[in-house]
């Protein structure tokens, strides 16, 4: 099976290295030609509790033809810039809202698979990541694309996978958790676990998750478990993690705040639903991005 992973960030490097290690014909796409060439020669290194591996992965600057699966792991603001003319199934495992809609308009819904991953990966330097904690990758067909081959190849690469009939719901669940945790860690410059130890921050996280869930409900989603409890459990399970948003702020990169809190605010406006706390953290993060 030929698999292309788009995006040389923390998740893209992790997925590409693990797929290559399992014997899958893997290509990583990095739009920056200079970095692609460096990654090509030095390989991708993954540090984890099981040791450190360096995998040699083919790195190119555009999506090759003849692929059996394309996994999109670029930051959400880059999705609309991708050139995807492949007819292969396209799987998005990105954070945030709006990626599915953008990919539907570029490749069509019939080849689209969507999902989320709770693998915890930190980009230490170009082509080097720390796999801080194992997670679960949930994915399913957006409309009619069979999910079986993608599930199988990821499982073979050592990922814990689950099929879902409602990938939209899985994406919203992750967005609600991210909307609670990520802006607070980025604003306070703290690891995930600290949120639980600061009562005001913990309450703000709970309030942010509630606002996100209310907006998800206006889109027809209902959640069987309390996402506030899930967010608190996530902070505890990933207590030493530097959230992806804090990693971006520390590295001076653009964050995914627009696709998380920004999208929640935008969608809330369609139903005149107030989301005051989400709006404020979104505005503060936009301020940080531009300072
Ligand atoms: O974006 C992230 O960093 C992760 O989704 C999460 C769950 C906040 C853990 O760090």
Descriptive account of the structure:
With 291 residues, the protein is an alpha/beta fold. The chain folds into 2 domains: 2-165, Rossmann fold, CATH 3.40.50; 169-289, N-(1-d-carboxylethyl)-l-norvaline Dehydrogenase, domain 2. The chain contains 11 helices and 12 strands. The chain has helices spanning 10-21, 33-42, 99-107, 148-156, 167-188, 194-197, 199-218, 227-237, 244-251, 258-270, 276-290; strands at residues 2-6, 25-29, 44-48, 51-55, 58-60, 69-72, 90-92, 112-117, 120-125, 128-133, 136-141, 160-163. The strands form 2 sheets. An 8-stranded mixed beta sheet has the order 5-2-1-6-7-8-11-12, sandwiched between helices. Strands 4-3-10-9 form a 4-stranded mixed beta sheet. β7 (90-92), α3 (99-107) and β8 (112-117) form a beta-alpha-beta unit. α7 packs across α10. It is globular and about 45 Å long. The termini are far apart. The model has no long low-confidence stretch (mean pLDDT 96). Residues 95, 120, 177-178, 181-182, 192, 234, 238, 241, 243-244 line the site of pantoate. Pantoate binds at residues 95, 120, 177-178, 181-182, 192, 234, 238, 241, 243-244.
